[in-house]
Amino acid sequence: MNLSAKETTQRPNDRYDRHRLIEGFDQERLALVDAIVIGAGAVGNEVIKNLALLGIGRIDIHDFDLIEIHNLTRSVLFHEGLVGRSKAEAAADACRNIDPNVTAQGFMGDFRDRLSVERVRAADAVICCVDNHEARIALNRLCLLAGTPLLNAAIDAWEVSAEIYPHTPTDAAACYECWIPSAIYESISARYSCGGLRKASIEQRRIPTTTLTSSIAGAALVSLLLQHVCDLPTRRKFSVQSRSRLLSLTAEERMISRNPVCPACGIYGKLPVIIPCRAESSPVGIYPTAQDEESELIFSEPIITGWHCSGCHQSHALLARARDYDTSLTWCPECQAASRSVSIMDSATPSSLRALSAGRKLPLQFLYSPDSRPPFLLSLSNRLNDDS
Amino acid sequence: MTPNNHFQQQNNKQYTMNIPVILRTADQTRKSEVNIPYGMTGNEVIENAVDNWKLPKDVTYTLVNATSNHVLNSSQAVSDQNVKSGDLLSLDNTLTAG
After folding, report:
1. CB neighbour list of residue A189: distance below 8 Å, 6 or more residues apart
2. Measured between CA atoms, how close is B75 to chain A, in angstroms?
3. Distance from CA of B12 to the nearest CA of A (A)
């Protein structure tokens, strides 16, 4: 765009000067946006880079991985000197280097341990840049409970998919689980034994990707975010023509209808009242009504309550997250056989939960009661850096 | 892909009415006119296509109505999801990586 001499000198020190020349682009609104990015891999790098360059107000980044050398072909925010560092923390540092006005924090660890429903509810959007469907399903349910929009992308070496799920309780918009094929649930189940423990021998399939698809995914996600959060005008069409054999760009917009038998939005989409309580306390006497004592409490994830060996008849009580163990837990060193049966629960009534926990700390993010009037969620968050 | 008889005898179910559509892969290397029986689910259509066209079985597919630009639910009957005669259905790869 050619600018007159007057225009170029009006804001000589304004880094967002060119943004302000775009009709409908509200830089002050962008500075108020609060985004949570889950995953700082290939797509996450592009999303974070775009958010920082645009001057988004707050970016929280969650990833449990460390930077490896093979990440560098698809990670614009990382370099060789950062190999071995936390992806989330390195990405946050890069954000602050790009634009010191952006408040960026990196959280090393699993988002299921660090991210409370309250924090998600306070955010404008959650941007899912993970590489597996289990995490996407967990995030979808978390965002449904919080009533917060979820943006999701997936890529391979040649294709990109970018979606937005508004999760507003008043409309009939679909959630992520409204459309995913049943084969995805089957493939997740195949990684677990019939008792619900992860199979020790299963390795995740590696899918090759390039910066070409991750950069398109990053642009698409942030574009969807701006349209939804900042009401950017959508009447303009951005067209890209490519004569390259390597890259052929064809964009198609698809609609997803709400699934009347969706396993997620029918249960998790009720926008519950959030009741904070500390994880180490037993949830006694905090239920809104007496009727709630009979309601089933859905756990944020399955927990192991103990094991019993059918060979030597030893038993052991546990209160631990099932995802922290695998099928090796069934091995009994006394019997030299996989003779232990492991008890796993994903819901309970309040009375059975009291008996189960006996005052011990519940290793859960939340307890959710969808059938109470109104539905409520006991947030068991005591995260170190959760400043919602 | 063989239309009519193959679909109608799928899974020993007896289907009576059909929806004629065009089914293709996302990369458009496979394309065929088929009659999808009323009541046949998206999963059954996908399974049929994978078998007949010998598509990779380690890929998860999603069925999309490319005419109306609607993603179809794989567990529900295709006939219950506003698929009309002559619609173009696409077998898309369900992407995973990030």
Report:
1. none
2. 7
3. 22
| B5-93 topology per CATH | Ubiquitin-like (UB roll) (3.10.20)
Q: What are phi and psi of A323, to 5 degrees?
A: -70, -15
Which residues neighbour A162 within 8 Å (Cβ) at sequence distance 6 or greater? A151, A152, A153, A217, A220, A221, A224
CATH assignment at residue A227 = 3.40.50.720
**High-pLDDT (> 70) share of chain A, %:** 84
Q: Do A182 and B43 touch (CB under 8 A)?
A: yes
The ipTM of this complex is: 0.82
Q: Tell me whether residues A205 and B94 touch, CB distance under 8 A.
A: no
Check whether A9 has a pLDDT greater than 50.
no
Q: What is the largest CA-CA distance in chain B?
A: 43
Indicate the pLDDT class of residue B41, thresholds 50, 70 and 90: very high
Same domain? A278 vs A177: no
Residues A379 and A275 sit within 8 Å (Cβ to Cβ): yes
Order of strands across the sheet with B61-65?
Answer: A255-256, B70-71, B61-65, B88-93, B18-25, B31-37
Q: How many domains, in total, are found in chain A?
A: 2
The amino acid that residue A342 corresponds to is: V
CB atoms within 10 A of CB A275: 16
Query: Whose structure tokens read 């010998």?
Result: B54
Q: Which of A204, A237, A268 is the last residue of a domain?
A: A268
Residues A190 and A205 in one domain: yes
Which of A170, A255, A160 has the alpha carbon at shortest distance from A216? A160
**Out of B46, B58, B97, closest to residue A156 by CB:** B97
Q: Which of B28, B73, B95, B67 is nearest to A252 (CA)?
A: B67
Q: State which of A208, A238, A268 marks the end of a domain.
A: A268
Chains A–B, number of C-beta pairs less than 8 Å apart = 82
- What's the pLDDT at A229? 82
Angle (CA) A53 A90 A93, round 5°: 50
The one-character DSSP state at B82 is T
The token pair that represents A264 in the structure block: 């997620």
Chain B residues within 8 A of A180 when measuring between CB atoms: 62, 94
